[in-house]
Amino acid sequence: MILYYPCKPLGVNQPFGINPQTYARFGINGHNGIDFFAPDGTGVFATHEGTVVQVGVDEYEGHGVVVEGVDEIGKYKTIYWHMKENEIAVKVGDKLSVGDFIGKADNTGFSTGSHLHFGLKRTDDNGDTLNNDNGFLGAIDPMPYFTGQFACDDKLGKLLALIKSIALQLLGILKGKQ
After folding, report:
1. Mind listing the pLDDT tens digit for each residue in 10-55?
2. What pLDDT sits at residue 58?
3. Which of the listed residues 33, 52, 73, 142 has the most CB atoms within 10 Å of its CB?
């Protein structure tokens, strides 16, 4: 599995697994995702190719999106929470590529400030979370799967390559007419 960072600039407010005393009231052994630094309105981008399987609101997590992907091991889902209400740009069934705009970060749900909560879970063929009894409701630490690149840069890089290709083709056409 390869993931790209969902927002820029990179900063981690709260890594996976810490603060067990805070999360015990939710029945988990610690933080079940990564909280990325994301001031209000920061763009959030798809970290992998996949399909949007959920767009909605959760009492604790606020507004968010869940994207299902497949790798060499099987299915997984990435979770994007605490997003800005009415600023989510995707709907269930949308097919996403790395770098597609999902929405904007905010401070919705059980949160002490604007950020993006990013989660990762392995799923079965039906999309149900595996290992729900691992102490983190099936979540696993996503950090080892990040490439070190930003999703928004990947999309921009592909766009710039396309523009360059078109410009070179046009230049060739113009030179041929001289």
Report:
1. 899 999 989 889 888 889 898 899 999 999 999 999 999 999 999 9
2. 81
3. 33
Q: Write down the catalytic residue from 48, 82, 115, 117.
A: 115
> Cα–Cα distance between 28 and 22 in angstroms, integer?
9
What's the CATH number where 33 sits?
2.70.70.10
Q: How many domains does the chain have?
A: 1
- Residue 147, SS3? strand
Average pLDDT, the chain: 89
Strands (E), the chain: 3-5, 12-14, 34-37, 43-45, 50-58, 62-70, 75-83, 95-96, 101-104, 115-123, 146-150
In 3-state terms, what secondary structure has residue 155?
A: helix
CB burial of 37-53 (b: ≥16 within 10 Å; e: otherwise) equals bbeeebbbbbbbebbbe
What is the residue range of 81's domain? 3-176
Q: What is the pTM of this model?
A: 0.84
Contact 171, 64 (CB under 8 A): no
For 56, list phi and psi in degrees, rounded to 5. 180, -160
Q: What is the pLDDT of residues 136-162, one digit of tens each?
A: 999 999 999 999 888 888 666 566 656
Distance between CA atoms of residues 83 and 109, nearest Å: 9
Neighbours of 127 (CB within 10 A): 15
